[in-house]
Amino acid sequence: MGEPLGLLKVTVVRGKGLVIRDFKSSDPYVVVKLGNQTARTRVINSCLNPVWNEELSFSLAEPVGMLNLEVFDRDRFKADDKMGHAHISLQPIVSAARLRQILKVSSGETTLRKVVPDGDNCLVRESSIACIDGEVMQDVWLRLSDVESGEIQLKIKFIDNSFPGTR
Fold this sequence. Notes:
Blueprint lengths: L3 E13 L11 E7 L2 E4 L10 E11 L4 E8 L7 E9 L1 H13 L5 E7 L11 E6 L2 E9 L7 E10 L7
Antiparallel strand pairs: 1-4, 1-10, 2-3, 2-5, 5-6, 7-8, 8-9, 9-10
């Protein structure tokens, strides 16, 4: 990894319309990866619309890459089943944090940038990156790939090392 930029806090909020991998339901959990860092949520038993609300933390460094996630169905006696995967580029949130520094935004709520669904992300719909009381945040819904259905909601917060008052 290159030069450290800051801390990325990813809250895995919930899933919606996840696929059935067991007899009538699934026991989903989410694995989130950033470079060589990995974190995962707890398993929610027998649920296709799980609510996790779990915050996972990662160190963010140059070059800024993709945040990848995979959803799995926990199985007791065999390998866990894949329930889809998604990704989102972190470049827009880092660029928005730099813009925040230039504009010296530190209080209130200011929209810094909008991100539209494209090849660099699995966004379901347009997402705004905002500075809320000094913190750069993005709320996203990601469509899971390689499965019939499923979406995951994330809240992403970037805490910039170089800007005072963001810790």
